[in-house]
C-alpha cells in the first residue's frame, strides 16, 4: 500500500515537473519573440524617421539651390535693385513654373519691406515683414534660411514655411530678399511613404518644436507644439533617439517613438508606432506558442499516465503469479512451514508441517494445537528459550529440537526460525521451516558408533603388532571394550582344556574394587567352574545382556568384595562353531543395548582374529628360529665335511703319490741294479708293477680333477670356445705329430663360464675324440654350434670307434669304461668330470653314437 | 772353499733315499743334510736343539723343502726362513708331490725360489733332481754373505 502511495506521489511530482518545464520553455519562447518583435518595430521606426529626415533635408536643400540660382540672375538683381515689379515678375513666374513646391514667391528689400510677389497680390506691398522668423533667420548673417512654421497671410489661409535667400548686387551688397512660401500640406507627398494604417504616425517639427506637418490630425491653420515635452525638447536640441512614450499620440496610449533631426535646418522627424497596435499581431503568436506548450504538456502527461497504468498492471500480474507460485511452494514443500503466535497457536501451517507432526491436515493441526510449547515440545521450556533467542538476535536461528507428534512418537527436527514483528517492531510471533531429521540423527548416531567401533578394531589390530603375547592383546582389547561400551569393569577369558575357565585379562579397577592384594592381582583367576550369569554366555554360545543381574535367574551371587553388579554384557569368543572364551563387561550406568552387544561382538571377532594372528606369528617365530638353528647346524656340518674332503684330496694328491713313487722308484732301481740277477719273467713282472703305478697315477690325477670341479670357486667370464678348441687340438697334434686329423671348428663360438673348468671339459672331450679316432682311416673331428628347440647346443663329433647306444647311460659315470685300457687307455673319470663341469655351469650333456661310426657329444650352456 | 751343503727337508725315508740316489746318479756329490720334519729343519738352520753346537756360518747352499711335514709343516718352515735375517737369502726349492695350485701360489708368495713337483715316475724324478742340482749348485750365484 505504501508503495502504491509512494508511486502516486512520484507520479504527481513528475507531472508537476513536466508542467513547470513546459511552462517555462513556453514563457522563454514568448518573451524572446516579444523582444525580437519590439526591436524590429523600433528598428523600423528609426529607419523610417531617418529616411524621412534625409528626404526632407534633401528637398529643402534642392529648393534653396534653385532659389539661389535665381537670386544670382543679373537681370533679376537689376530688377530688384530697381524695385521694378515688371522686370521681376517674369523671373518669379519662371521660378514657380520650375519649382513645383512653390506656393508663393515674394521679394522684400533688405529691410524686409514687401514690394513684389507672385502670384501678384499687391495688398501686402509696402508692409514691413521684418518681424517674421524667415526675415530674422536670413538677415542674421545673410545666409539662406528655412523658417519655422507660420500662418500664411497670402493666398489661401493655412500653415506654411518659408525658404529665404539674400540677393546680392555685384558689389556683394544685399539688395533684397527672395523668399518662397510653401504650404505644409505639400509635405504629405514626402512623408506618406510606408505610413499606412492608423497605428503609425509621423510628425515634422520645426526649430521651436511646433508641428509643421503630421498625418495624424490635420492642423488647419493652427500652430501647435508637439505634446510630449520630453521628446520635443530633445528633438529641438537636435538629438536622434528611440523611446517608448506614453501619451505621445492623441489616444493616451503607449507608443514606440523614433526621432531623427534634419541636419542644418533644425527640424526633426518623429515616427510613432502605437504599441498595442504594433503588438496585436504578436498576441496570436503568443497564444499559439502557449497552446503548443500546453499540448506538449498534455501529451507527456497522458503518455506517463499510460505507462504508469501499464506498469501497475504488470506489477499486479507478477504479484499474482508470484503469489500463486509461493502458494504452490507453501502447499507442496517437503519442509513444514508455519507461523505461530507467541502464546502458542499456529496462524498458518502447510500440509507438510501437519504431516511431520502426525496430523491429517493443516486445519487439524491449527485447531488441535493451542499450546505449542506444552503439546509439541518434548522439553516445554525449549520454546520460551527459542523465543528469547530469536528476539535477541533477530536473525534466523537454526536449531535442532525434539518434538512430540500427535501419536506421541518423539522426533528430532531441524528448524530455521525467525521473528514476526508488527509495524511497531514488537515481536508478535515466530515463523519458520522445520524438517524431520530423526532418520538423519539416527544415521549420524550409527556412523559415529561405526567410527568408534572401527577405531576400536584398528587399535586392537595395531596393538597386535606392538605387543608380544596373546595376553597383552587381551588386556588391550579389554581396555578398548570397556571404553567402547562405557563400562567400568570387565574380563576376558578362555575355556581351558579341562572345560573350565581361565581369565586372561581383568581390568585393574575391577581388581582394586575387589580388595585383592596386589600380589594376587597379577595372578589371573584360573580353572573356574563355568556357571552364573557369565557362564551362560559360554554355555549358550551367545551374547547376553542382563540389565538387572541381581534378580536374574542364573545369578549365582558375587565373590566377596566384588563390586555390586548393576548391568552385564557378555559375548562369546568364537572360533568356527566352538566357543573358546568370552568377553564380559559390566556396570554401564543406564544398562546395555543391542548396539553395545553388536559392538562387543564385532570386537570379539577381531580379538579372536588378533589372538589367532599373534599365535601364528609366535609359532612362525619359533619355527623360524628352529629353522635358523637347523640351517646353522647343517652349514657347520657341511663346512666340516668340506674341510675333511679338502684334507682328503690333499692327502690323496700328496700321500698317495709318495708310496707310488717308492714302488716305481725302487722297482726301477731293482730293474737297473739287479737286472743280471733277474730272469725275463722277473723283469716282466717288475715292468707290470711300473705300469700299474702309472695307471694309478693317472687315476689319482683324474680323481683330483673330478673333485676339484665341485671344490674350486667358479669365476665366470666370456670364453672364446672356438679358440679354446683349436688350442687343444694343436696340443694334441703336437703330442701326436704323426697323425693327420681333419679338424673343423666353427668360428666365433663365445660362451660365458669359468675358463679353467671349461678348458678341462673340452680337453677331455677332444682328447677322447683323438683317442677314439686313432684307428680310423680318415679321422675327422668337428666342433659346431646349432639351435635346437630354441636352445643353443654345442657338439663335438668324431668318426671314431663310437659306442653302443645301449650303454649311453653309463658313459658319464665314474670309472665307467666301454673299452679296455689295452684298447684305449683311460681311467673312466674324464666324462664324469665333463658332466660335472657342464652341470656346474647349469647346462646338460648327452651323447649319441654308433659302433664303428663315431660319437657325438652334445652340451648346452645357458 | 766351504762345502756346499744341501738341506733336504723330507719326512718320507723312501723319498729321501730316492732323492739322494738321484743326486748321486747325477754326480752331485754335495753334502746332503736331511731333516725329517720342520722342527729339525729349523733347528739345523738356526742352530738350535740337536744342532745347537753347529757352526752358524755353515749355511746350506739350497734348501729342498717338502710341504707336508710332521710337527711344523713346510709353509711354516719357509715363512721362518724368510723371516730371519741369517736365512732369508737362502734359496728354497719346494719339492713336493702336491699338484695343488693353492700350494704353488702360497709357496711363491712366501718367497720360495722354485717349485718342483715330485713325479711318480722315477726316471722323471731323477731328471728333475738332476736339473735342480745343476741349477742351484752350479749355475746359480748367491750373495757372498750367505755362503
Report the CATH C-level class of the largest domain in chain A: Alpha Beta
Count of individual beta strands of chain A: 28
CATH architecture of the largest domain in chain A: 2-Layer Sandwich
Summed up, the helix count of chain A is 21
Outline the biggest β-sheet of chain A: 6 strands, antiparallel
Q: How many distinct domains of chain A?
A: 4
SSE succession of chain B = EHEHEHEHEH
Greatest interface and its participating residue counts: A-B, 23 and 19 residues
Topology:
The complex is a heterodimer of chains A (862) and B (147).
Chain A: H1 2-71, H2 74-81, H3 85-98, E1 104-108, E2 114-118, H4 133-141, E3 145-146, E4 150-151, E5 159-168, E6 174-183, H5 188-191, E7 200-205, E8 211-214, H6 229-236, E9 241-246, E10 254-261, E11 268-274, H7 275-332, E12 336-341, E13 346-349, H8 351-356, H9 362-368, H10 372-375, H11 381-393, E14 397-404, E15 410-421, E16 427-436, H12 438-466, H13 470-485, E17 489-495, E18 501-506, H14 508-513, H15 518-521, H16 532-539, E19 544-546, E20 568-575, E21 578-586, H17 594-673, H18 680-711, E22 717-720, H19 721-735, E23 742-745, E24 750-753, H20 755-772, E25 780-788, E26 791-798, H21 830-840, E27 845-850, E28 854-860
Parallel strand pairs in A: 23-25
Antiparallel strand pairs in A: 1-2, 1-6, 3-5, 4-5, 5-6, 7-8, 7-11, 9-10, 10-11, 12-13, 12-16, 14-15, 15-16, 17-18, 17-21, 19-20, 20-21, 22-24, 25-26, 26-28, 27-28
Helix pairs in contact in A: 1-7, 2-3, 12-13, 12-17, 13-17, 17-18, 18-21, 19-20, 20-21
Chain B: E1 5-9, H1 13-25, E2 31-35, H2 38-46, E3 62-65, H3 74-83, E4 92-96, H4 101-109, E5 114-117, H5 122-139
Parallel strand pairs in B: 1-2, 1-3, 3-4, 4-5
Helix pairs in contact in B: 1-5, 2-3
Amino acid at each position: 500500500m505504501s508503495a502504491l502511495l509512494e508511486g502516486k506521489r512520484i507520479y504527481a511530482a513528475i507531472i508537476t515537473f513536466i508542467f513547470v518545464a513546459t511552462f517555462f520553455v513556453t514563457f522563454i519562447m514568448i518573451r524572446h519573440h516579444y523582444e525580437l518583435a519590439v526591436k524590429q518595430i523600433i528598428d523600423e521606426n528609426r529607419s523610417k524617421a531617418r529616411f524621412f529626415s534625409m528626404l526632407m533635408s534633401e528637398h529643402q536643400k534642392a529648393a534653396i539651390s534653385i532659389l539661389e540660382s535665381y537670386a544670382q540672375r543679373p537681370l533679376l538683381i537689376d530688377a530688384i535693385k530697381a524695385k521694378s515689379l515688371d522686370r521681376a515678375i517674369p523671373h518669379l513666374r519662371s521660378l514657380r513654373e520650375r519649382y513645383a513646391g512653390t506656393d508663393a514667391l515674394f521679394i522684400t528689400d533688405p529691410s524686409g519691406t514687401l514690394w513684389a510677389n507672385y502670384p501678384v497680390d499687391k495688398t501686402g506691398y509696402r508692409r514691413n515683414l521684418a518681424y517674421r522668423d524667415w526675415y530674422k533667420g536670413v538677415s542674421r548673417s545673410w545666409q539662406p534660411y528655412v523658417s519655422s512654421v507660420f500662418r500664411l497671410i497670402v493666398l489661401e489661409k493655412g500653415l506654411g514655411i518659408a525658404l529665404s535667400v539674400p540677393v546680392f548686387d555685384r558689389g556683394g551688397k544685399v539688395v533684397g530678399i527672395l523668399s518662397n512660401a510653401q504650404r505644409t500640406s505639400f509635405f504629405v507627398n514626402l512623408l506618406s511613404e510606408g505610413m499606412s494604417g492608423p497605428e503609425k504616425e509621423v510628425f515634422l517639427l520645426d526649430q521651436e518644436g511646433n508641428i509643421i506637418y503630421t498625418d495624424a490630425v490635420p492642423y488647419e491653420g493652427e500652430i501647435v507644439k508637439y505634446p510630449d515635452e520630453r521628446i520635443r525638447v530633445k528633438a529641438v536640441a537636435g538629438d536622434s533617439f528611440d523611446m517608448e512614450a506614453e501619451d505621445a499620440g492623441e489616444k493616451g496610449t503607449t507608443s514606440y517613438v523614433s526621432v531623427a533631426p534634419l541636419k542644418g535646418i533644425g527640424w526633426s522627424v518623429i515616427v510613432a508606432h502605437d504599441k498595442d497596435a504594433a503588438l496585436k499581431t504578436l498576441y496570436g503568436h503568443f497564444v499559439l506558442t502557449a497552446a503548443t506548450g500546453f499540448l506538449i504538456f498534455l501529451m507527456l502527461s497522458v503518455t506517463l499516465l499510460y505507462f504508469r497504468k501499464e506498469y501497475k498492471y504488470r506489477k499486479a500480474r507478477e504479484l499474482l503469479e508470484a503469489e500463486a507460485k509461493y502458494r504452490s511452494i507453501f502447499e507442496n514443500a517437503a519442509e513444514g512451514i508455519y507461523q505461530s503466535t507467541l502464546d502458542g497457536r499456529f496462524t498458518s501451517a502447510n500440509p507438510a508441517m501437519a504431516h511431520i507432526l502426525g496430523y491429517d491436515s493443516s486445519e487439524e493441526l491449527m485447531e488441535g494445537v493451542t499450546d505449542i510449547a506444552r503439546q509439541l515440545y518434548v522439553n516445554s521450556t525449549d520454546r520460551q528459550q527459542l523465543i528469547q533467542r530469536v528476539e535477541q538476535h533477530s536473525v534466523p536461528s537454526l536449531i535442532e529440537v525434539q518434538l512430540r507428534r500427535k501419536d506421541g512418537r518423539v522426533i528430532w527436527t531441524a528448524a530455521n526460525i525467525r521473528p514476526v514483528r508488527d509495524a511497531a517492531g514488537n515481536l508478535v510471533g515466530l515463523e519458520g521451516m522445520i524438517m524431520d531429521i530423526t532418520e538423519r540423527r539416527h544415521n549420524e548416531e550409527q556412523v559415529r558408533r561405526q567410527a568408534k567401533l572401527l577405531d576400536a578394531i584398528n587399535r586392537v589390530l595395531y596393538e597386535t603388532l606392538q605387543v608380544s603375547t596373546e595376553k597383552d592383546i587381551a588386556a588391550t582389547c579389554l581396555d578398548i571394550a570397556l571404553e567402547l561400551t562405557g563400562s567400568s569393569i570387565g574380563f576376558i577369558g578362555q575355556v581351558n582344556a579341562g572345560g573350565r575357565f581361565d581369565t586372561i585379562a581383568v581390568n585393574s579397577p575391577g581388581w582394586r574394587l575387589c580388595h585383592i592384594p596386589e600380589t594376587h592381582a597379577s595372578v589371573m583367576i584360573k580353572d573356574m567352574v563355568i556357571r552364573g550369569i557369565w557362564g551362560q554366555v559360554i554355555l549358550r554360545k551367545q551374547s547376553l545382556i542382563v540389565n538387572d543381574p541381581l534378580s536374574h535367574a542364573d545369578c549365582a551371587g558375587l565373590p566377596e568384595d566384588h563390586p555390586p553388579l548393576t548391568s552385564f554384557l557378555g559375548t562369546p569368543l568364537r572360533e568356527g562353531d566352538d566357543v573358546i572364551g568370552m568377553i564380559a563387561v559390566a556396570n554401564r550406568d543406564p544398562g546395555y543395548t543391542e548396539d553395545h552387544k553388536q559392538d562387543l561382538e564385532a570386537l570379539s571377532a577381531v580379538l579372536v582374529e588378533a589372538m589367532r594372528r599373534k599365535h601364528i606369528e609366535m609359532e612362525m617365530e619359533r619355527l623360524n628360529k628352529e629353522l635358523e638353528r637347523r640351517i646353522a647346524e647343517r652349514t657347520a656340518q657341511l663346512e666340516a665335511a668340506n674341510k675333511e674332503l679338502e684334507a682328503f684330496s690333499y692327502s690323496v694328491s700328496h700321500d698317495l703319490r709318495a708310496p707310488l713313487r717308492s714302488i716305481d722308484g725302487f722297482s726301477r732301481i731293482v730293474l737297473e741294479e739287479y737286472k743280471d740277477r733277474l730272469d725275463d719273467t722277473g723283469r716282466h713282472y717288475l715292468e707290470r708293477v711300473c705300469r700299474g703305478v702309472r695307471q694309478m697315477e693317472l687315476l689319482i690325477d683324474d680323481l683330483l680333477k673330478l673333485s676339484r670341479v665341485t671344490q674350486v670357486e667358479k669365476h665366470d667370464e666370456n670364453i672364446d670356445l672356438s679358440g679354446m678348441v683349436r688350442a687343444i687340438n694343436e696340443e694334441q697334434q703336437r703330442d701326436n705329430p704323426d697323425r693327420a686329423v681333419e679338424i673343423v671348428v666353427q668360428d666365433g663360438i663365445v660362451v660365458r663360464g669359468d675358463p679353467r673348468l671349461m678348458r678341462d671339459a673340452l680337453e677331455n672331450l677332444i682328447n677322447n675324440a683323438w683317442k677314439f679316432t686313432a684307428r680310423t682311416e680318415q679321422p675327422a673331428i668337428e666342433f659346431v654350434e646349432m639351435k635346437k628347440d630354441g636352445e643353443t647346443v654345442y657338439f663335438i663329433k668324431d668318426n671314431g670307434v663310437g659306442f653302443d647306444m645301449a650303454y649311453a647311460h653309463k658313459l658319464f659315470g665314474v670309472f665307467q669304461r666301454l673299452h679296455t685300457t689295452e684298447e684305449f687307455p683311460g681311467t673312466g673319470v674324464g666324462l664324469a668330470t665333463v658332466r660335472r663341469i657342464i652341470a656346474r655351469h647349469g647346462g646338460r650333456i648327452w651323447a649319441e653314437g654308433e659302433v664303428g661310426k663315431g660319437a657325438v657329444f652334445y652340451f648346452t650352456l645357458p | 772353499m766351504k762345502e756346499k751343503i744341501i738341506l733336504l727337508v723330507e719326512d718320507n725315508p723312501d723319498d729321501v733315499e730316492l732323492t739322494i740316489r738321484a743326486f748321486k746318479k747325477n754326480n752331485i756329490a754335495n753334502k746332503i743334510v736331511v731333516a725329517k720334519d720342520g722342527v729339525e729343519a729349523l733347528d739345523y738352520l738356526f742352530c738350535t736343539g740337536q744342532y745347537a753346537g753347529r757352526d752358524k756360518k755353515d749355511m746350506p747352499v739350497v734348501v729342498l723343502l717338502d710341504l707336508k711335514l710332521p710337527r711344523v709343516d713346510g709353509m711354516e718352515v719357509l715363512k721362518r726362513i724368510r723371516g730371519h735375517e741369517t736365512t732369508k737369502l737362502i734359496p728354497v726349492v719346494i719339492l713336493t708331490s702336491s699338484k695343488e695350485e693353492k700350494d704353488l701360489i702360497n709357496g711363491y708368495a712366501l718367497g720360495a725360489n722354485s717349485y718342483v713337483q715330485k713325479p711318480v715316475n722315477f726316471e722323471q724324478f731323477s731328471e728333475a733332481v738332476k736339473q735342480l742340482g745343476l741349477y742351484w749348485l752350479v749355475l746359480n750365484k748367491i750373495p757372498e754373505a750367505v755362503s
